[in-house]
Amino acid sequence: MEDVLKACLSEIASGISPGVEVELNIPDSKFGDYSTNLALKLAAINSQSPRTLAEDILKRLNVKLADLVSDISIAGAGFINFTLNDRTLINEISSEPKRFLDGEVAVVEYSDPNVLKTLHAGHLYTSIVGESIANLMNEAGAKVYRINYVSDVGLHVARAIWQITNLLGGENPAGLDSIAEGQRAEWMSAAYVQGNHAYESDKTARAAITELNQRIYAIFKDGDHSSPLAQIYWATRGWSFAEFDRLYSRLQIMFDQYYTESEVAPIGLEKVREQLRRGVFEMSDKAVVFRGEKYGLHTRVFINSAGIPTYEAKDIGLAELKKRDFNYSRSVIITASEQEQYFAVVLKALEQFEPEQAKHTVHLSHGTVRLSGGKKMSSRLGNILRAQDVLDAANKATAKVGGQIDERVMLAAVKYSLLKQRLGGDIIYEPEESVNVLGNSGPYLQYAHARAHSILTKSNAEVNIAGELTVQERELARALSRYASVVEVAAKELSPHLLCNYLYDLSQVYNRFYETNRVLGDQREQLRLGLSQKYANRLKSGLNILGIDAPDHI
Fold this sequence. Notes:
Radius of gyration: 28 Å
Number of strands: 13
CATH architecture of the largest domain: 3-Layer(aba) Sandwich
Number of domains: 4
Strand order of the largest sheet: 6-5-4-10-11
């Protein structure tokens, strides 16, 4: 219906001031179902009375929309309000989100962990929000590939391996056998912290780690799997991937493709050297750099003075691989906000020789994930907030209020709590709030769905949404009719929090309806069952997009 209204308004507007954008808003229900300020916009352009223009527009609309609306009115200085008739509103309940990405291929990159380092709360957040964004794009019609880019080479790896060799008494891979499987993740993370401290405080250790970094790169170049150092590297790398998979499995997240830094590094190295010859990059103190100042950015190194590709060059290689493997028309990358300036330079460099790839790439960033009252934490210092800590906090909060630990409910609590916050700023996780079944939480919405399902299973009546609606039935139908447009906007803006807000508001509307309107055994049972069924379906669909289970019973 929104498209019909916009088409009618656009046709009228084009005869007055061509090119004026038509906007529709959702007003308070007492003012109708849709509202537009078109008359005010046209009046400002043409120096006319907005009220007079609104009256003229209203007359034309009454003819065009006679079968679809029950009322068109003017409010204030010239706002035009529309109230749909019951038949139109009931039809709107079944409308589905527009598949505006039909035929497009999208790659969504998220999580991006580092081997030999603990998965922290930031990885948890990007995994959850990335999955929901991928689901939204899929709902909009795109063929979506979920990408995970793993950092498996670089100084952070060298720092950890350096300390591991110290703990093993040298390059002694046999010593790894003594590390119990359940202790491996923490053991590697502790080694990284110790190695990082040595790198930053001891010149001798720094030189040794720098040299070790080059040796680790040579492992890939030479295809080495047998030397003692290579055995240590490949074993601990494998431990890390096993740890990643455990978390993703628990979060019910699956990736279509893993890429690694070791894989993209040679591709990025070759590409940067090629573009160095073409003048995109330049030499500076034996390093290859991109001068971003001419674009209002800053200079970054893409190949260091030792000839090793930096993160920047690797991301160039990653872009090449993604394009080769998926030939995408849209690319979304989700990282922490501290990488905003980094990606601004990388994408500007990419734009110089692959303008279409850069044009169709969007970088989304987020702030730091903290527990309520917590401080910002750093894996470099060893005081990180782990992904596991957040999940444990949800379980502890559940136990504190006497609830039964349920994996589905715990995941709903964590996922919804993170997703309902607007992407971009810092994310505060409130454990007690997240498990509150009476508040704006994932478990609350799960219980709301289970309650609606329970109502539906208690009736044998045929479902039939038809006829005139009461005031409260209409309010529920109005809320249900917004589902398609909310999903569409959330997909366009890559903003899962919009869907979270809608689902909570919808559940509140249904609760008010159910408190004062009997469903089972009422003479309007068929219609109310139909509304309840649509409500349960919309809750389930919306929660599934957010990556949250909607069980029939809890």
